[in-house]
Fold this sequence. Notes:
By secondary structure, this protein is an alpha+beta fold. The chain folds into two domains: 27-186; 194-418, SGNH hydrolase (Rossmann fold). The protein is 19% helix and 28% strand. The chain has nine helices and 27 strands. It has a six-stranded antiparallel sheet, with no helix packed on it. Strands 18-17-21-24-25 form a five-stranded parallel sheet, with helices on both faces. It has a four-stranded antiparallel sheet with strand order 3-16-5-10, with no helix packed on it. Helix 3 (219-228) packs across helix 9, helix 4 packs parallel to helix 6 and helix 6 runs parallel beside helix 7. The radius of gyration is 21 Å and the shape is globular.
Amino acid sequence: MRELRNCTFACILLFIPELAGAQQNAWIATWAASPQATAPNAKAPLLNIEDQTVRERVRVSIGGAQICIRLSNESGSAPLLIGSATVATPIDAASVRLESMQSVSFGGHNSAMIPAGAAMLSDPVAFPVASGAEISISLYFPKRVASPTLHHLALKRAVVSQHGDHSHEEKIEARGTSRSSISVSAVLVSARPAQRLVVTFGDSVTDGDGSTEEADRNWPSDLVRRLGATPGGSKVAVVNEGIVGNRLLNDCFIASAGCFGVSALARFDRDALAQPGVTHVVLLEGINDIGFPGAELGGGYLADAADVRTSEDLIGAYRQLISRAHAHGVKIIGATITPFEGVDVPGYYSESKEAVRQAVNKWIRSSGSFDGVIDFDAVLRDPDHPTRLLPRFASEDRLHPNDLGYQAMADAIDVALFK
């Protein structure tokens, strides 16, 4: 009953258990982004919201006849008031097709108060969406948002309005914009039989750092497009739960690194196992556990040089995540850690750190502990210098792939893993 625990208000009324164990009119996540905390910044529009409307966009992976919106105040230190919310078909970042607009309600009310540390799911909205469609979501915040819950690397421009409720307007006049998103952490669609959900879980390589903004060119998005062109692929939803700077074993709250997020071990249940309809998790995580100790950025260290992680440390974390996934009946697919020699952060790479990566990748490939393996290392490495990314697949920082690299990752996945 994972979906039931993640649905509130009128959504609960849609759950009708069937004899086969499936659920008629249940829900499945079609888009998601991990909620993150942030640090104060007087110049950042999303960190200084008061009596303003934010319009942001998401691209769903599979379609449905109805949607629910999950709003997060999980990093908030005070209750969060949502004055009004709407969904619509976007024209651009600021404008929507007015005839498509629908109001979003919460327990029958047009406004909602989300307690600190909590999330809230909307009532079902009669807003049919097609696979791969983009949705515009507008939220009005009547009061100052003291500690917003964001997703930092949204890779889509959010528009922050002048003062007032502009959630029902065709076009928002921008007072500011942001490449982050606020409060929206998932979109659900009404599920159909035999649908499956793949949660891509990891760090910035999954989040899409290095890809082109406004283009949906990270590897999970590329996988969505590939599945859409595959027979039966329309039954597989994909959501991206990557976080910049994320680590398996340690939290990361470093403003200079754009890194705000609890460890993979701490967030796995919320971001992966609690997603309605989840059947598979693709785990690509560990490079920051290896690279952070002793690495210098912004005048400080990403992690103490003495905080060295061994291959046994990472493998122990993998085993824990595997056990937790299997306890929920979810398959977990391990992805090898990609090359990182030449990264432009001093101290991030060393030969001893590379030895840890090689040992971890050997275990991922050969242990048989995962339900399947995706060898992203083999896809992206330079055959002539296998400790670094192939130059044509590397972004400027030589840690993250570029658009071509992310596409190569998606193309290398055996989609039969998701059966």
